[in-house]
Design goal:
Elements: H1 2-14, H2 18-23, H3 28-36, H4 43-53, H5 57-81, H6 91-106, H7 112-116, H8 123-131, H9 138-151, H10 160-189, E1 219-220, H11 223-229, E2 239-242, E3 246-252, E4 259-260, E5 264-268, H12 288-299, E6 303-308, E7 318-333, E8 339-347, H13 352-355, H14 362-372, H15 390-398, E9 410-412, E10 415-417, E11 419-422, E12 439-442, H16 444-451, E13 455-457, E14 462-465, E15 470-474, H17 485-494
Parallel strand pairs: 3-6
Antiparallel strand pairs: 1-7, 2-3, 4-5, 5-8, 6-7, 7-8, 9-10, 11-12, 13-14, 14-15
Helix pairs in contact: 4-5, 6-10, 9-10
Length: 504
């Protein structure tokens, strides 16, 4: 930027220093940014730099202000020609900034580093507020005043009335005008050459499912490259996601004893591992990334899987291998004597690798939702397998399709309806038997709670709801249908209770 070059030449010609401008009240960060061309200085910073490095007085100040105005307009015009709508500072924002700087000067113009030591804000944030580059929230402005109160030179100056005036009046007007300006910019963007689509016209990628433009088999050289591509946004952790919606992605690096069979993965969750020995030091908990993977089993949202590979120095170290679905999870004792969480992921068929991320009805559904609510949402579906075997049907008939927990019998169009729940899951790695002593007759609600480990059955057949630790009743048995307590114990351990432990 020629403006920054001219500033550097002026400083060199007059043998001015950055420290001289800082002593006069300029932010060190803002001065360096102006000299490097990273950011156009505010009028206040420019005036301070000119006054510190020249003795030209008001004529010199006016000359530099005019050059700054011309530079700002040329930058805005260049952005407009590129089809980029730019926001401008409103008079209300200027007014707020002037009042804030006036209060700062009344307190002796302390350095932002000094004030930052007495409040919860960084010196960088304070610089940004004083330069008018960003607006603080009301809570942050109050923190700023707390810092000023702690360092003010005149202890008799009361800041309470000034603070409330800025928060309740000037800041409110500035933030309102700022919001209206952003709305104007979005509307203008539609009319610019080749312009920018409005937010509501652009499909949002919420982090789940296939990443647009990334195909299975694509390789990446570093974790940072994975994050920049949107495949796995965590630079260190192996699981990325949110416990309320599910896991977006995982990376298999061989750190844990994962059973990787290609299309089926038995993934070990994250926990405390000694960085030197590589041994686990505590039981893993169903929190953070582990909780996110457990949520994926409920939401049905797919998980991106990336494998670390070691194929030579000139070949990518990570390979994206597509979408998997979490079908099951459980707790078991790990190789170092501590409990671990394990997750069974199954690869989606090729036809679903892209379709699952963009359901055919998702955009229209989102559009309807946004008419009622501005918050972006996504549409997903969850499918739960309800097994029907001869043994399962026999157990349901023996209980007359009545739930063994709550005693409710649902009446459908063709008769009673209930679901057969296997206490110990069938198939690998649990290998539960399809036998009567491993099957319960439950209503759909209690079947779901049992599968998710939120319904625990003790050996005395008391049924405990883990959400609030209440006893909801006692499991009904009949002379013909007895439950094997060993399967109940496996279910408890499977969902994180200690061996031979009972839910309270």
């Amino acid at each position: 930027m020629s403006f920054a070059r001219d500033l550097r030449e002026m400083r060199e010609r007059t043998q001015g220093t950055v420290e001289a401008a800082v002593i006069r009240g300029a932010s060190r960060t803002a001065v360096y940014a102006a000299l490097s061309g990273t950011r156009l200085p505010s009028i206040q910073t420019l005036d301070t730099m000119v006054e510190a490095w020249t003795d030209g007085g008001e004529p010199e100040l006016q000359r530099w202000r005019e050059r700054r105005r011309v530079t700002e307009e040329s930058l805005a015009e260049a952005a407009r020609l590129k089809g980029v709508a730019t926001a401008r500072r409103t008079p209300e924002e200027e007014d707020f900034n002037e009042q804030l700087r006036a209060v700062w000067q009344e307190c002796g113009s302390p350095s932002t580093e000094r004030v930052a030591r007495h409040c919860g804000l960084s010196a960088r944030s304070l610089d940004s507020y004083l330069e008018g580059r960003t607006l603080p929230t009301a809570a942050r402005l109050r923190e700023l005043f707390d810092g000023l109160s702690a360092v003010r030179e005149d202890s008799e100056i009361s800041l309470s009335s000034q603070r409330e005036a800025l928060v309740d009046e000037a800041l409110f007007r500035a933030r309102t005008a700022h919001k209206e300006e952003r709305i104007r910019v979005r509307q203008l963007a539609k009319a610019l050459p080749g312009g920018q689509p409005a937010d509501s016209d652009t499909p949002r990628f919420d982090g789940f499912g296939a990443v647009p433009g990334v195909r299975p088999g694509q390789r990446f050289t570093t974790r940072r490259a994975l994050a920049q591509a949107g495949v796995h946004r965590q630079l260190m952790a192996g699981i990325a996601g949110r416990k309320d919606r599910g896991a977006e992605s995982i990376v298999l690096t061989g750190t844990h004893a994962d059973d990787d069979h290609g299309d089926v993965i038995i993934y070990t969750g994250e926990g405390t591992v000694n960085s030197q020995t590589g041994h686990q030091t505590h039981d893993q908990q169903l929190t953070r990334g582990n909780a996110a993977l457990a949520a994926s089993a409920t939401t049905g949202l797919p998980v991106r899987v990336t494998r670390g590979i070691n194929a030579g120095p000139h070949i990518g170290l990570y390979r994206y291998d597509g979408l998997y679905r979490v079908e099951d999870y459980w707790s078991e004792q790990g190789p170092h004597g501590y409990r671990v969480w394990r997750f069974r992921l199954v690869q989606l068929p090729p036809v679903e690798q892209s379709e699952v991320a963009q359901p055919a009805l998702a955009l229209s559904a989102n559009a309807q939702i946004r008419e009622r609510d501005d918050r972006p949402r996504s549409v997903s579906s969850v499918q739960r397998v309800v097994r029907s075997t001869a043994t399962a049907n026999l157990v349901k008939r023996m209980h007359d399709y009545t739930c063994q927990v709550c005693g409710i019998r649902l009446q459908g169009a063709t008769g009673g309806y209930a679901e057969a729940a296997h206490i110990r899951p069938l198939g690998s790695p649990h290998d539960g038997p399809d036998a009567m002593e491993n099957v319960l007759c439950l209503c759909p609600n209690h079947h779901v709670l049992l599968d998710q480990g939120m319904l625990i059955i003790n050996d005395d057949l008391t049924v405990v709801n883990r959400a609030d630790s209440t006893v909801v009743g006692r499991l009904r048995e009949t002379a013909e249908h007895r439950v094997d307590r060993r399967h109940l114990a496996h279910h408890r351990v499977h969902h994180g209770l200690p061996t031979d432990g009972a839910a309270q």
